C-alpha cells in the first residue's frame, strides 16, 4: 500500500469522525450492529417508563421492571431448553459470566481441560487460577481450529473437574462438536461449560440434549441485545460458589449471601434497560426464525468465501465449509500486517472489520498467524449481499495496490 | 388500615399495571427516575450511531465508542479530583465495584474495619471473606446512624489493612465524616474505601482532599446515568488484584491479565450505551450545578421532615438536620408494618417508596427497626414541592384511617 493512501485515510478519518457514520459493518462477532428497531425501543421504554429498581421496592414501576426481567428469563429458558427460568442468571457480559462459572466451580487441586482455540475470557481466568493450584490442560486443535475428541478423552485425569470450551472460534468460526464433548463430560462425571459467544442466537443450543452444565452467552452479539448484559444458564442442582456478594433484595435481614437462584449470583442493581433490550432481540430472532437468520448468514459466508477463494493473494483460515463454520471469516493478504489491511478497509472503503489477535492468542498459534494476526470479517443478520460484493471489490483493489 | 382499602389497592394495580404510569417517585435512593432527556438521547445515540466494540477493532465506530468512554473517564476524574482518567474503572454496578475493591485488597489474615450502617454490598463480601481468614470489626453507630471516630481508632489492630464505609446511609441518610475517617486511615497506613452510592452526584467528593484510596460509585443513582453501569476510582500507585480476567483488547498475545489500568479491571465488552448515558448525566449535573441540585434536594428534605414532625404518629429516623443528612428519609407510622404502608402509598396514592430492610440489616438493628423495617422516601433532582405536599397529605390520610 502506498503512503498516499495512508494519508488519504487519515484525512478521511478526520473529516468523518463525528459525522453520521454509514459503514459496511463486518464486525458482528464483536458486537452486532445495527440492532432491530424493537431493541432500541425496548431500551428506551424501560428507561423512560419504568426506570425503577426491580426486585426491591415493590411499587408499580419496580414491579414492572421485575416483570420484564422475569419474562426475559422465561424467554431465554425456552430458547436454550431450560425448565426453570430461575436458573438463568444475568451478568455484565459473557466474560463476567465465564469468570463466575469457572471460578464458581474450580478449587485448588482440580484439573480442567480446555482447547487452544479459546478466547482470553477463558484462558486468562484459568491462568489466574494456576496460583491457587488449579491445573489446566490445553488440547491442541488442528490448523483449521478443529478439536479432536480423542485428545479430550486422553486428557482426562482422576481430578478432572471441568471441561470448558467455546461453541465456535471467534477467529476462524470453527464449530466445536459440543454435543459430543458434553457426552464425554457426562460419562466421566465432569462439569461442562460452553462459551456460546459466537453462536447463541444463530445456532440451536439445547442444554439438555447437549449435556451442557453451564451455558454462557453475551447479550450484545447474535442475541441482538445491547452491550452491558450477558448471562449464564446453570443446570438444576449444580452447586457453584458466588463470586460477587451484595444486596439482592431477598433475605435482606441476613449478612450471608442467599443460596437461591438467581439471587445468589445477581447482587446489586441489574441492567434493566439492557435486559429489556435483550428480550426484544430474542423476540426478533424468534419472529424472523433462528433458522432463517442462520441460513442468511451461512449463505453470505459461503458466498464470501467462494469469492475470496478466487483471489490468489488471499489466504483464508479455518474450515471453508459453512456447515462447520460460524459466520466469521479470517483472512490475510500475502504477508501484509492485518492491522494495515483493516485500516485501509476502514478509512478508504468504509468497511469495519477487526484485525489482530482477537483476544485469542493460542488460536493464532494454532492456525499459524500469531505474528501477522488475521483480518476478521463477521457477518450479522443485517449484512447484505451488496455489502459482501463491495467488500470483495475492496479486497481486490487492495491486492492490486500492494 | 381497612381491608376495603387493600382490595381497592389490588383492583387499582390490575387496572393500571401496563398503562403509562405517572407516579410520585420517591425511590431515588434505589435508582433516580426520571433521568434528564439528554441521558435517554445519549444512550440512544450510542446504540444507533456507534454501537460497536470500543478498544478492540480500531474502525471508526469502534473508535467513537472508545472515545465516549475515555471522555467519560475524564469527566469522572475531574468530578472527583483524580489526575489520571485511566484510574477510573467501569463495572456493572456499585456492588461489582465494591467486590473488586474489597477482594482486590484483602488477604487471609488481614483485618478490616467497617460500620453497622453499611449496605449488604459491603457486609456480604466481608462475610464471604471470613472463610479465607479475613477478620472484620463492625463499629456500632448510634441510633441516628452516626459513627464515632474514636470507635474507629480504637478498632485498629496491627493487621488492619482496610477501612470501608459508606458516605451516607441508604436507610437514614446519615452522612459519615469521611474526610476524618480518611485522615485516620492515612495516619495509620490503612487503605480507605468509600461507598458513595448515596452521595456521588449530590455531595462534593474530592478523593485527594478526603484521603480516599478507592471511591466506589453507582451510575444509576445521583449521577443520573442508566442502570447497568458503576465504577471505582483507584488511587495512583495502589496495587489491587483483579477479580475478573478476560479479553481487554490489550496485550492480546498474552494469557496473563495486563497489569495496566483500567484494562486490568475491565475485561470483556463494556456497557458503552450505559457509559454514554452516564456522561450525559454528569454533564447535566455540571450544567445545573451540583450545589444547586444539593440545595434543591436538601430544601425538599428539610421541608418534608418539618411537615412529618407535625404528625404525631410518625416516627422519623436518623439525624433530622439536613446538614448531616442525604435526601433519604426513613419513617414508620406507629407500629404498622412498613411494607403495608408502602403498599397503600403505591396503590391508593400512586406514590412509589421503598419499605423494609433496604439491604442494610445492621443499620436497622442500630436504629431499632429490624422487625418493622422503615418506609423510605428518597428525593431526587426532579422531585417537586408538590410531590412532597401530596405525600404529606397521603401520610396524614393513612394515619387517620388506621
From TrEMBL, chains A, B:
Entries under InterPro entries matching the protein: Aminotrans_V_dom (IPR000192), Cys_dSase-rel_unknwn_funct (IPR010969), Cys_dSase_SufS (IPR010970), Cysteine_dSase (IPR016454), PyrdxlP-dep_Trfase (IPR015424), PyrdxlP-dep_Trfase_major (IPR015421), PyrdxlP-dep_Trfase_small (IPR015422)
Pfam families xref list: Aminotran_5
GO biological process, one term: cysteine metabolic process
SUPFAM superfamilies: PLP-dependent transferases
Keyword line: Pyridoxal phosphate, Transferase
Reaction catalysed by this enzyme: (sulfur carrier)-H + L-cysteine = (sulfur carrier)-SH + L-alanine
Top enzyme class: transferase
UniProt cofactor(s): pyridoxal 5'-phosphate
Enzyme Commission identifier(s): 2.8.1.7
Domain (Aminotransferase class V): residue spans on this chain: 24-390
GO molecular function: cysteine desulfurase activity; pyridoxal phosphate binding
Domain of life the protein comes from: Bacteria
Family statement: Belongs to the class-V pyridoxal-phosphate-dependent aminotransferase family. Csd subfamily.
NCBIfam families, alphabetized: am_tr_V_EF2568 (TIGR01977)
The protein, known as: cysteine desulfurase
Amino acid at each position: 500500500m502506498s503512503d498516499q493512501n495512508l494519508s488519504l485515510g487519515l484525512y478521511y478519518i478526520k473529516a468523518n469522525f463525528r459525522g453520521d457514520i454509514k459503514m459496511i459493518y463486518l464486525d458482528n462477532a464483536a458486537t452486532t450492529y445495527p440492532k432491530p428497531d424493537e431493541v432500541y425501543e425496548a431500551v428506551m421504554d424501560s428507561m423512560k417508563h419504568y426506570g425503577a429498581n426491580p426486585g426491591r421496592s415493590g411499587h408499580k414501576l419496580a414491579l414492572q421492571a421485575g416483570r420484564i426481567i422475569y419474562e426475559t428469563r422465561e424467554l431465554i429458558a425456552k430458547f436454550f431448553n431450560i425448565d426453570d427460568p430461575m436458573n438463568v442468571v444475568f451478568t455484565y457480559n459473557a466474560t463476567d459470566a465465564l469468570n463466575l462459572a469457572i471460578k464458581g466451580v474450580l478449587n485448588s487441586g482440580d484439573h480442567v481441560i480446555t482447547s487452544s482455540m479459546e478466547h482470553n475470557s477463558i484462558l486468562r481466568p484459568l491462568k489466574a487460577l494456576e496460583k491457587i493450584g488449579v491445573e489446566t490442560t490445553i488440547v491442541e486443535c488442528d490448523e483449521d481450529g478443529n478439536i479432536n475428541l480423542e485428545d479430550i478423552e486422553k486428557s482426562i485425569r482422576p481430578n478432572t473437574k471441568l471441561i470448558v470450551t467455546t461453541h465456535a472460534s471467534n477467529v476462524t468460526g470453527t464449530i466445536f462438536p459440543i454435543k459430543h464433548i458434553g457426552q464425554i463430560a457426562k460419562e466421566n462425571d465432569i462439569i461442562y461449560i460452553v462459551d456460546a459467544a459466537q453462536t447463541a442466537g444463530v445456532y440451536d443450543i439445547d442444554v439438555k440434549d447437549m449435556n451442557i452444565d453451564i451455558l454462557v452467552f453475551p447479550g450484545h452479539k447474535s442475541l441482538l441485545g445491547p452491550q452491558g448484559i450477558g448471562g449464564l444458564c446453570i443446570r438444576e442442582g449444580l452447586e457453584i460458589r458466588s463470586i460477587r456478594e451484595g444486596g439482592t433484595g431477598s433475605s435482606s435481614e441476613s449478612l450471608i449471601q442467599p443460596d437461591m437462584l438467581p439471587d445468589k449470583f445477581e447482587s446489586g442493581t441489574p441492567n434493566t434497560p439492557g435486559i429489556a433490550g435483550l428480550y426484544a432481540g430474542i423476540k426478533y430472532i424468534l419472529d424472523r426464525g433462528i433458522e432463517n437468520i442462520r441460513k442468511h448468514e451461512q449463505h453470505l459466508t459461503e458466498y464470501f468465501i467462494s469469492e475470496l477463494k478466487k483471489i490468489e493473494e488471499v489466504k483464508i483460515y479455518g474450515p471453508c465449509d459453512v456447515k462447520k463454520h460460524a459466520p466469521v471469516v479470517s483472512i490475510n493478504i500475502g504477508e501484509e500486517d492485518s492491522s494495515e489491511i483493516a485500516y485501509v478497509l476502514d478509512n478508504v472503503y468504509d468497511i469495519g472489520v477487526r484485525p489482530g489477535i482477537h483476544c485469542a492468542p493460542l488460536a493464532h498459534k494454532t492456525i499459524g498467524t500469531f505474528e501477522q494476526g488475521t483480518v476478521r470479517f463477521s457477518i450479522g443478520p443485517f449484512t447484505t449481499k451488496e455489502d459482501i460484493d463491495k467488500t470483495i471489490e475492496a479486497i481486490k483493489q487492495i491486492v492490486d495496490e500492494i
